[in-house]
Design a protein that fits this description.
binds S-adenosylmethionine, alpha/beta, 2 domains, globular, Rossmann fold, 6 strands
């Protein structure tokens, strides 16, 4: 069930924090293309490293969870800017607090929004940890909005029909995680 609250009336309604139930914690909302499962930090570092993030890059994490990818991109890889989209309100609140605490208001941004409805055209790097089916739904949007040369890094799930440029993919990280790298031509 999406929400058991009597106040639910509109299709785009999101539960407030005090209306949480088990479904909302797992991100089980109609727009969700993946449940919340965080990428282990060593895998985050490898994803950003594989993408060769530099100070020129604008990194978008589509479904940013607790924000570990966007904060790591800016703080550890010196990305110019990082933007996260997330439908789970809990993470939005916690990321907004971190942005202020870390004094990153000009470089890290988070939006409570379905990323399928977001403009992602400014991203030079997109990171995702969705599902194979979620990736297939996102693929046309990546193809139509991203500029040539933009990179896409996917944790664990490939984007079928595209060539994986990560040579290390056949040797998964110790824990079995896979990282797929693609480039828009
Ligand atoms: C597997 S988690 C990955 C979190 C983070 N990117 C990481 O790697 O640690 C997927 C996240 O995407 C969010 N999500 C799924 N579909 C979404 C959508 N259509 N728009 C925004 N966020 C979405 C979920 O709520 C969840 O937090």
């Amino acid at each position: 069930m999406y929400i058991n609250n009597k106040k639910k009336k509109k299709d785009n309604y999101y539960p407030r924090l005090n209306e949480w139930n088990d479904d909302t914690i797992w991100g089980d909302q109609p727009e969700s293309l993946a449940p919340y499962v965080p990428t282990p930090q060593p895998v985050v570092l490898e994803m950003l490293s594989v993408a060769e993030i530099s100070s020129k890059d604008i990194v978008y994490d589509l479904g940013c969870g607790d924000g570990r990818v966007i904060f790591s991109a800016v703080e550890l890889f010196n990305a110019k800017k990082a933007v996260g989209f997330e439908i789970n309100p809990y993470w939005i609140t916690s990321i907004e607090k971190k942005i202020i605490d870390k004094k990153l208001i000009n470089r890290v941004f988070v939006y409570r929004k379905n990323f399928m409805e977001a403009d992602i055209s400014e991203a030079s790097v997109v990171t995702i940890y969705l599902t194979t089916n979620g990736n297939m739904k996102l693929k046309p949007k990546l193809e139509s909005e991203l500029k040539p040369g933009s990179r896409i890094v996917s944790h664990d799930f490939p984007i079928h029909g595209w060539d994986n440029l990560n040579q290390k993919e056949k040797k998964p990280l110790g824990s079995g995680h896979k990282i797929f790298l693609y480039k828009i031509s």
